Amino acid sequence: MLTISTRGQAMPASPIRKLVPFAEAAKKKGIKVYHLNIGQPDIETPKMVLDAVRHSDFKVLEYSHSAGNESYRKKLVQYYASVGITVSANQIIITTGSSEAIAFGFMSCLDAGDEVIIPEPFYANYNGFAVAAGVKVVPVTSFIENSFALPPISEMEKKITPRTKAIVICNPNNPTGYLYSKEEMEQLKALIIKHNLYLFSDEAYREFCYEGHQTSAMHLTGVDDHVIIMDTISKRYSACGGRIGAFVTKNQQVLDAAMKFAQARLSPPGFAQIAGEAAVDLPADYFDTTKAEYKSRRDLIVSRLNQMEGVFCPNPGGAFYAMARLPIDDADRFCQWLLEEFSFEGQTVMLAPATGFYGTEGLGKREVRLAYVLNSNDLEMAMDCLAAAIKEYPGRV
Amino acid sequence: MLTISTRGQAMPASPIRKLVPFAEAAKKKGIKVYHLNIGQPDIETPKMVLDAVRHSDFKVLEYSHSAGNESYRKKLVQYYASVGITVSANQIIITTGSSEAIAFGFMSCLDAGDEVIIPEPFYANYNGFAVAAGVKVVPVTSFIENSFALPPISEMEKKITPRTKAIVICNPNNPTGYLYSKEEMEQLKALIIKHNLYLFSDEAYREFCYEGHQTSAMHLTGVDDHVIIMDTISKRYSACGGRIGAFVTKNQQVLDAAMKFAQARLSPPGFAQIAGEAAVDLPADYFDTTKAEYKSRRDLIVSRLNQMEGVFCPNPGGAFYAMARLPIDDADRFCQWLLEEFSFEGQTVMLAPATGFYGTEGLGKREVRLAYVLNSNDLEMAMDCLAAAIKEYPGRV
Questions:
Q1: Which ipTM value was assigned to this complex?
Q2: Nearest CA in chain A to B258
């Protein structure tokens, strides 16, 4: 018998995408499904960004440099300066989405059996890249009651073993929307210095902060060798399908190692590098407009959720996700039921059960993640559906 | 001290790209460098293929399905039928270049410590993906004297251990240009059945056969569960920078496992999927023209090389590479010397030392790989340079 690898078996299915067949079945029955399950914004990709690709006039779609086009990396230096981060073009490797940046980080800094500490709930695909790299994810629980703030450093410290090599954060956070404070970032800094750890910082949602500003891991001083930023244009410019991200660090050894992984896959996608480069020249008010839109959506769903009996949703400071605790027995069952058995005026809503975002078995059973990636009218309708569903759900508690 | 992972250290630098700094230095001195070192064709990407992207009119650059756009996969079913391969759209996962297809194959079918047997010399990046996956590459030597034909099955069989899980071939071959015969493919079939192995078949150069036709691994009968094809649009349509490939297998278990790795990285690049889909509709004579061009280039360089004293170059049956044995002491030293110290009428040539394509230390020291990706005039000039260089090189033997 030909067999699948142990890691192929251990690889988790995406908790965000695993309900897709039920959504497809619901649509076939004629039910309209509001997709709040996935961080695919409805915001249009800026025309200027798409036009840069459409108006390109090269004749041969060539490999780029393995680190990405130099012109793009130079442009990104400008972008990072605009958010208070000083890096050179040589400290940036363009990646195929932030996904590949995460993979490069794990592969370059950790061996099989090494451990990374990640506050949970966390972006589920970290699990996938950890399984691929043979790395063990050690979760430290954050709690909905205090908006999923950074767990106490003492709790994180308890998890450190001789195999611990890194801490992974996502800031602002997916799935919780939590924006780490400057104080929390300084606590993390002390921790990585004390225990000699890498800090992998996923900053995909950097611009989307509604309560104060983001403290980037690269704003921390004196830890240049520790910090690796995983970045992406996906959410920033609503360009998820381009698959362009960046691996950014000032640690030369790490850069050298990551470059070898980058060379093995030859180059990042060509067309979307053109898009990414053009995006840096978007007018300064681009993010103001987008952010205002997301903020009004956030206000809408947080308010609507907290009006529902038995529902609690902390106010997320950034990104475009909210986590809510619902009066239900089992989030996975509930989310499937929403698609399989429920409808309200011919409509229903698709949510991501929070269980898939926790590393600790059994947590998140009453929580769901909502991505506010639809316009306000659709969000109102989705909230109407959810309110009706919570009343009707047989597993209500 | 923060450390790099063992695999980060073990990761090989690209043998094709490691001489790049010397080429850059030569160019700064005003020397024209003919690049025969890398499989980046000069052939124009078909206008129709680029136009499909340039004329696209979507508003949001969205994630595609993790397996790639359904419309593209359906189109590929048509493409594969045209080359005698019957597959369904569900048996295809669109990947980020064939690079990712190789990674998915290793990750899904092999665990760390498992072994793959590969005839050497082989495409150097297999090493990279093997290191990333913790997989051990076990080379079986093929020889320039018989054009790098498949090593005797008895030699391959000797290398099989309880950890052997797969055989990897590239057909037609990069770097040797060798086109495996139907008989050789049947021998491989018997071997994978007898020892219950996967056959990973890299068929990037399928269309470029100058002596007879390609026997695809998917033309073999009765081994559906064993065969995985790694494919790409890079060479076929001169679209290397698009980063679009395919992972094709009829083994449902393998597909299920690979899909989980595909979900973790969300989706393959969006723009280039549009290009790949359009390419399937190229007129039937597209490959005739391209193939004729490559064939005339092959004839040119093979003839020129064999006219040089002490040089031997077998006639490659496919792809766009030739391997030549030169009267030199050390291919790495020679290739660096070509860039650092040599010029002929203000020009020089960049080659890939064959050492990087062998898994066995010490082999390939007198061999180089030449990619015939330049037009005939440039190839003639490059051959003039090489002929002069061989005469002048201090390490001539």
A1: 0.95
A2: A8
